Amino acid sequence: MFGGIPPEGDEETPVFVISVAAQLAGMHAQTLRTYDRQGLVSPGRTSGGGRRYSMRDIALLREVQRLSQEDGVNLAGIKRIIELENQVDALRARLSELTEELAAAYAAGEQAAAAAHASYRRDLVPLNQQTAMVVWRPKRR
User: This protein's superkingdom (predicted)?
Assistant: First the structure.
């Protein structure tokens, strides 16, 4: 269970109590509480109010620690980075939705055009090339 995602959930499923999450993230439990209060990492809650961390939360905790320790970013800066990354993720998801809508609209347009062209064929009278008439007009001098 400590090495990965529990079999009954996914990376979003909040399953780890704060002591286990702190151990997995390589931090003290009090640090996790501080990050929660500051809005950096918001774990799920039980009905009794206890924190439950997901694997995604643990990865975010590790990223907060990396930004702080390796890159020297303060907590306000880290919070802004997380907000911007979440915004980028939301925009990517919206772009994907719009791309799918556009593809569906394009396909519907193509289908409507094909139906319109098919209806023209029913209205046209075929021309028999063997009985076609050619008009000759001599040039005036």
Answer: Bacteria
- Give φ, ψ of 51 to 5 degrees: -75, 140
Distance separating alpha carbons of residues 70 and 92, to the nearest angstrom: 28
Q: Is the pLDDT of residue 32 over 90?
A: yes
Q: What is the pLDDT of residues 120-141, one digit of tens each?
A: 766 666 666 676 667 778 888 7
Distance of CA 5 to CAs 2, 19, 57, 58, 63, Å? 8, 17, 12, 11, 18
Cβ neighbours of residue 53 closer than 8 Å, sequence gap 6 or more: 14, 15, 16, 17, 18, 20, 21, 32, 41, 43, 44, 61
Is-contact 55 29, C-beta < 8 A? no
- In this prediction the pTM is 0.66
End-to-end CA distance of the chain: 101
Residue 77 CB: number of other CB atoms within 10 A? Answer: 13
Please write the tens of the pLDDT for every residue from 75-130: 999 999 999 999 999 999 999 999 999 999 999 999 999 888 877 766 666 666 67
At position 69, the amino acid (one-letter code) is Q
H helices of 38-74, in order, are 55-69
